[in-house]
Write a structure and sequence with these properties.
- Keywords: Membrane, Transmembrane, Transmembrane helix.
- It contains 4 helices and no strands.
- The chain is mainly α.
- Helix 1 runs antiparallel to helix 4, helix 2 packs across helix 3 and helix 3 crosses helix 4.
Amino acid sequence: MIVLFVGTVVGAVTGLVVGGSFGAVYLAVLAGFLGAVAGVIIRNLIISKGAGVGPDDSKTPALVAIYAIIASLAGSLAAKEVLDVSELTAPVGVGALAGLFSAVLLSMLMITYHTNPGEPPKLRATH
């Protein structure tokens, strides 16, 4: 939930700040990437460091960066296709949907990474 919320907010703020200076595709990719990266950073700060539960991603920053790039590209372009069908052209809407879709894909990639085959996902205390 943290990743989804942060990704959507950062995507919307990116759309608001960048606005019409980029084309819709480039805005969607930028908003999706920034939303996904911000979601990972905030998630790691809150879950791993603050609450003391959840998997420790500090040992795999390169893999997390690759996941963020993959998720932002796929999520942003999917959001752009949805926006084309819905005819929504507001930069804030483009950024918010791109950030949300990228955060959803990033969350699924992170869940897949932390799940061992045949076992349910577990949260572990890092005290």
